[in-house]
């Protein structure tokens, strides 16, 4: 689970990985015979029993640096990824966050990322914590964001990521009912296809920490079946 790939001076919420470190992490995966793919591709491969060697890479929030920094590096490695976009903030900035302002991808950048083979998925309309929403608002967050992103990507949008990783049984059921094929959480209480666990990757993650995180993620993933 990544958010932003860029140079930075301050990063209080630890959401940014420098371009150099990011390349190092991709190179680390490749050196171990692993390939980064979108969550959609990972699940399709898993359903077909051929997910060995694949690692799902996700980018939350849809920062402009996904288009300018992450995608070119991913393409160079022949990797794919999923970007979870805040549909009501496209072309704007991370207004929900009290950290440094970061620009979000424009419609044009989103289309280019899709054309480069990246999966466009939903992170809701306004990046609100879903457990606090009314039934109507929850439906709108899920359904409107999806319709809007499908218009832009001109392709089905089948994935969702819970803002802040906040999800109770109600949100998980609503995401399923809205027709999403899968949803990403962070550390779900009850893991499943609509509450997939993810592992945070940051600037401090080099070889040893990556190895430990990969092993821990494997354990978490296996313990749910
Ligand atoms: Zn987010």
UniProtKB/TrEMBL annotation:
Keyword Magnesium: no
Family annotation (PANTHER family): POLY-BETA-1,6-N-ACETYL-D-GLUCOSAMINE N-DEACETYLASE, PTHR34216
CDD domains noted in UniProt: CE4_NodB_like_5s_6s (cd10918)
InterPro entries: Glyco_hydro/deAcase_b/a-brl, NODB_dom, Polysacch_Deacetylase
Record organism: Actinomadura fibrosa
Keywords noted in UniProt: Hydrolase, Signal
Domain NodB homology: 53-225
Signal sequence, start to end: none
E.C. number: 3.-.-.-
MF (Gene Ontology): hydrolase activity
Taxonomic placement: Bacteria, Bacillati, Actinomycetota, Actinomycetes, Streptosporangiales
Cell location: Secreted
Descriptive protein name: Polysaccharide deacetylase family protein
């Amino acid at each position: 689970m990544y958010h932003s790939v860029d140079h930075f001076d301050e990063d209080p919420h630890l959401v940014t990985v420098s371009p150099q470190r990011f390349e190092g992490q991709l190179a680390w995966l490749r050196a171990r015979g692993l390939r980064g793919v979108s969550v959609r591709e990972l699940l399709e491969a898993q359903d077909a029993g051929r997910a060995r060697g694949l690692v799902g890479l996700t980018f939350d929030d849809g920062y402009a640096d996904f288009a300018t920094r992450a995608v070119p590096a991913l393409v160079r490695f022949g990797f794919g990824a999923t970007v979870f976009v805040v549909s009501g903030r496209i072309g704007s900035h991370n207004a929900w966050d009290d950290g440094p302002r970061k620009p979000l991808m424009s419609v044009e950048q989103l289309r280019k990322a899709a054309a480069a083979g990246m999966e466009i998925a939903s992170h809701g309309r306004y990046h609100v914590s879903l457990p606090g929403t009314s039934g109507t608002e929850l439906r709108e967050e899920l359904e409107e964001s999806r319709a809007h992103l499908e218009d832009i990507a001109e392709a089905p949008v089948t994935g969702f990521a819970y803002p802040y990783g906040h999800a109770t049984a109600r949100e998980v059921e609503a995401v399923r009912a809205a027709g999403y094929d899968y949803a990403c959480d962070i550390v779900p209480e009850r893991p499943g296809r609509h509450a997939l666990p993810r592992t945070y990757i940051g600037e401090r993650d080099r070889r040893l920490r990556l190895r430990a995180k990969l092993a821990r993620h494997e354990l978490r993933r296996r313990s749910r079946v």
